[in-house]
Amino acid sequence: MFAFIQIKLLQIWQTALIALRALRRNKMRSMLTALGIIIGVASVVAMVAVGNGAQARITSQVSALGQNLLTVFAGSKKSGGVNSGLGSASAITLADAEAVQREVPDAAAVSPEVSVTAQAIANGRNWSTTVVGESQDYLKIRDWKLAAGSMFNASDIRSAAKVAVIGSKTANELFGPLNPVGQGVRIKNIPFTIIGLLESKGAGMGGANQDDRILIPYTTAMKRITGDRYLRSVNVEIRSSDRMDIAQQQITSLLRQRHRLTAGQGDDFNIFNQKEIADTVNSISKIITLLLGSVAGISLVVGGIGIMNIMLVSVTERTREIGIRIAVGAQPGDIRLQFLIEAVTLSLFGGLIGVLCGVGASQLVGVLADFKAVVSSGSIILAFGVSSVIGIFFGFYPAHKAAALDPIVALRYE
Amino acid sequence: MNPPVIQLRELHRTYKSGEVEVKAVRGVTLDIHRGEFVAIMGSSGSGKSTLMNTIGCLDQPTSGTYLLDGLAVAGLDRKQLAKLRNQKLGFVFQSFNLLARTSARENVELPLFYSHPLVTLGDRHGRSVQALEKVGLGQRRDHLPNQLSGGQQQRVAIARALVSRPEVLLADEPTGNLDTRTSIEIMGLFQELNESGITIVMVTHELDIAAYCQRILIMRDGQVISDTANANRRLARDEIATLNQAEETAKLA
Question: How far is CA B97 from CA A283, A410, A411, B102, B183, in A?
């Protein structure tokens, strides 16, 4: 039995050699035929890589917002039909934020947020920036780190201390290469001491530069800068991502109750759910990847049809050879195997070159675009597998045609 | 007497050529014994090629029985026919039918490539070289068909037909594409092979080629109308010797 398998394998190997020789004799034609598959496989690999890369980048942007973040915005204000947009209504108070902290069990950390655009003056320069009041937990909530210095603490919040943590862009505008920590800065003519420098975070989801800001305790901001008793928003970190939806519901019902909204009335606040955004973005980019992949897949099928076309030509050209082989005792299966191996060799060769080209193209995209294309081993295996299946599929009809030739007719073929 | 290696009984072969039915072979009954050298003659359309294809297991009879080496051929499928052709038959064609761009040795090895049980690589090599030596082409084993003369190509084809040690060698107009002298040489090779015990069935329409055989069948309209032993058998060996002598004389003169 073992010897039989060995001999059978030997026979398949020798049939493969015959097939390879036939392909070598028509180098140009073989190359052009394989080109269809090369382009198909390369585009599948590259497109999926680009799609994955884009997805990874968007995902990382979304997660840069912080871990398990819920942001409660004040709702929109409508007066005389004019809708002033998110955060315009003065609806959320510090008491609301404290209630969330107190009564929502899944809220791990809460940071009330107020913000105002103000002129900052320091080091003989001035710069218009966003001054944001937050709690001591803000950096933890946003998963943000300090490059130098420290964050203000709970006692700074209680005492409404005049301390600030400065964004890298703002620091650069005001202090240039100097270390801003320990320096003073005047905001709306009130002197603050800079105690920390934020790490650069780059552009946010909306494209706004997150590094151009100054963080101060929300108490200080409310008392001394805005003079307002309403919050722009409340950032809430939830304990775990699978509790996000429940926490959102709890916060909604808590705030509705506190704002005395009746069943018929809409919410006067909005909750931004980071997980929801991430899920939406993920599903969109998955669809895009799928779309790119399937367009590329179509070109793979076109490549397969190219193989079938050439194999049919090859069978017709070699009718006499097939006739001779059948006459001396080749069984239909032997002939079928020979032509099938030719087709599969073409498509596998194309697949191999195609994978290399696809990886190359992905690297090129990584260099040209500002994100890395992620070549997944899955897409390589898939493209390679699909190309060999295509070889078998599109090679089968020509091979079958060859095997079904009548030797008498084939031997007389001119 | 040994049982006949080819035994045909009331063999018929009818084609459908469009609407028309062509009765190519109409009731041939024939025995060919081991060691015979038979010529099948007839004008074109006499059914000799169809009969040859049927004997060669390339075609199936419409009715009647055909026993090849005691085995009933009618009703076998393509796979079994291929096996029979591979093991029991060797083919020589008018147009040689060698694989182009393939060396003489590899051409000869072709039937072994498809034989069951499989022949190992070493055996294949040995047997193909042996077969080439038998036809006098041992030195040209690595030549390609287009580097060989017509006669040499036909010798390669004969070696290919012999390599699987068949029961019967079937030749279809083997000298049709060759000049007179080469034809005599090829017939000489056939006679030599026949003397060593190989059964040969040959289709030809040339009487002087048929004259090298022991037995001559003549076909007309799908039937064998004459089946006679060849009384005036030509011997290729003597004729070549005569030819060589004549050439020598011509050179001297």
Answer: 63, 11, 8, 12, 17
